[in-house]
Specification:
Mean pLDDT: 94
Structural class: alpha+beta
Order of helices and strands: HHEEHHHHHHEEEEE
Radius of gyration: 20 Å
CATH architecture of the largest domain: Orthogonal Bundle
Strand order of the largest sheet: 3-6-5-4-7
Low-confidence stretches: none
CATH topology of the largest domain: Fic-like fold
Largest sheet: 5 strands, mixed
Number of strands: 7
C-alpha cells in the first residue's frame, strides 16, 4: 500500500500522518519510541478500567499513541497487509468493514470463558496464545497493533492471577509465531506463552539476553527460546552459564538448554546434537 491508496500516509511519502507533523520516517520512529514508552509506563501505573472488550482495546491504543497519531484509538478504515519475508506473499488482515463484528465475536467468546479466570497457568497460557493470535489476525489499527494487543493480554493475565513476561520475547520470535498462527498453526505461539508464564524457564532466558546485550548482540532480531523436554536439537555451542548453556541451532536460532543434557567435553564452537530432558534453570 502506498500514499496514493493509503489516506494514512502523507502524499508522496511512506510516512504516516502524525500529531507533530513530522515528514521524516526516522524522526517519526524516534518520536514514537520515546512517547509510547512514556505512555506505556503510565498505563502500567494506572491501568485501563473496563470489560476487556472492543472499547477496552481501543482505549489502550488511544492512551499509548495519542501523542503520535491523530487516529489513535480508532479502527482502521483501509485494507492492511504485511510482508514479513522477502519473496513471500503478504499476510492480509481482517477487512475494515468486518473489524467491529469480528472483534465483538472474539471478546464475546472471551467473556463466555469468564475472562480465563480460575484455570491453571498452563491452560491459561494455551488459551491466551489463541486469543492473541485471533486479535493479531484482526490487526485493527493502522499502526501499533503489537504493543496494544500485548498490553491487552498482559492486563487479562493480571486480572486472572497470572504473570506473563513479554520482555524476554524477541521481535523475531513474535513475528515467526504470528506468521504461523495466521496460517492456522498455533504451536509456536502456544510454546511461547507456555514459556513466558513459567518462572523457571524465564530465569535462564533472561540471563542469556543480558549476556547478549552486554556483547552488543541484537537479540531482538533473532529467535531466542529455551529448549523443550523431549525435543531433539543440533547446533553449535555458544557458551555455558552455571547449569545452563547457549547454542546456535542449525536453523539459526539461539536456544538455552539445561547443562546436564550435554557432555562437559563439548567445547565452544563445537557442533553437537542432543535430546532435551528438562527445562533449563
Amino acid at each position: 500500500m502506498n500514499a496514493a491508496s493509503d489516506p494514512y500516509l502523507y502524499p508522496g511519502t511512506d510516512v504516516l500522518r502524525n500529531v507533530p507533523g513530522l515528514r521524516n520516517a526516522e524522526q517519526l520512529a524516534a518520536f514514537e519510541t520515546a512517547k509510547t514508552a512514556q505512555r506505556i509506563y503510565e498505563l502500567q501505573e494506572t491501568p485501563v478500567v473496563g470489560r476487556f472488550d472492543t472499547t477496552y482495546l481501543k482505549t489502550i491504543h488511544q492512551r499509548v499513541f495519542r501523542d503520535v497519531f491523530p487516529w489513535a484509538g480508532e479502527f482502521r478504515t483501509t485494507i492492511l497487509g504485511k510482508t514479513e519475508r522477502v519473496a513471500q506473499p503478504p499476510t492480509w488482515f481482517t477487512p475494515p468493514h468486518l473489524l467491529e463484528h469480528e472483534a465483538q465475536r472474539i471478546f464475546d467468546s472471551l467473556h463466555r470463558s469468564t475472562l480465563l479466570r480460575r484455570i491453571q497457568p498452563i491452560e491459561f497460557a494455551r488459551k491466551a496464545a489463541c486469543l492473541l493470535a485471533e486479535i493479531n489476525a484482526l490487526h485493527p489499527f493502522r499502526e501499533g497493533n503489537g504493543r496494544t494487543q500485548r498490553l491487552f493480554i498482559d492486563a487479562l493475565a493480571n486480572q486472572a492471577g497470572h504473570q506473563l513476561h513479554f520482555d524476554v520475547v524477541s521481535r523475531e520470535r513474535m513475528v515467526q509465531a504470528s506468521i504461523e498462527a495466521n496460517r492456522g498453526n498455533f504451536g509456536m505461539m502456544t510454546r511461547l506463552f507456555e514459556e513466558i508464564i513459567d518462572a523457571e524457564r524465564i530465569r535462564p532466558l533472561r540471563r542469556a539476553i543480558m549476556f547478549l546485550s552486554r556483547e552488543t548482540f541484537n537479540w531482538n532480531d533473532t529467535y531466542i527460546a529455551t529448549t523443550v523436554a523431549g525435543e531433539s536439537y543440533s547446533g553449535r555451542l555458544v557458551g555455558r552459564d552455571g547449569e545452563s548453556f547457549m547454542m546456535r541451532s542449525d536453523d539459526n536460532r539461539i536456544l538455552i538448554g539445561r547443562g546436564a543434557d550435554i557432555s562437559n567435553s563439548i567445547r565452544t564452537g563445537e557442533h553437537f546434537s542432543f535430546r532435551a530432558t528438562a527445562v533449563p534453570c
